[in-house]
Design goal:
By secondary structure, the protein is of the alpha+beta class. It has a single domain, classed as Glycoprotein, Type 4 Pilin. The protein is about 50% helix and about 15% strand. It is built from 2 helices and 4 strands; from the N terminus they run H-H-E-E-E-E. It has a 4-stranded antiparallel β-sheet. The protein is elongated, with a radius of gyration of 22 Å.
Length: about 130
């Protein structure tokens, strides 16, 4: 005689799997956002270093002719002039900008608009805006 699973056993198994899934997805999303933040911080350190080098050569910080209303062109311009490899495609996670005071910052693209910044000479990246 073959023994089969009952409908109740299958239903309980599906409930357990769905509960585990609802717990795992938010944790996975949080870890992805932390990874995006760490990538932005690393890119800001590279951008800050490139700005420092540009300042030594030109005696001023580089400010792109593009503004934040043209983020993809701005990132491509930064990559071209400062010799960087910042992600600039439609799948990018951050928009990067610079200003004349030597502040560089990244604003979350397509997310919650959180911002990281770094002033030239700072040891680490901070959240919010440059002071």
């Amino acid at each position: 005689m073959k023994k089969a699973f009952t409908v109740f056993e299958i239903l309980i198994t599906m409930v357990i799997i769905s509960v585990l899934g609802t717990l795992a997805v938010p944790a996975f999303m949080r870890s992805m956002e932390m990874t995006y933040d760490n990538n932005a911080k690393a890119d800001l350190k590279l951008l800050s270093s490139a700005e420092k080098t540009y300042y030594i050569d030109m005696n001023s910080y580089y400010v792109s002719p593009y503004n934040d209303s043209q983020p993809q062109e701005l990132i491509l311009d930064l990559n071209n002039v400062l010799g960087l490899g910042l992600p600039a495609g439609a799948n990018r996670k951050w928009n990067y900008e610079t200003d004349t005071s030597g502040c560089v910052w990244a604003t979350r693209y397509g997310g919650d608009s959180r911002t990281w910044h770094m002033a030239i000479g700072d040891a680490d990246v901070s959240s919010g805006a440059c002071s």
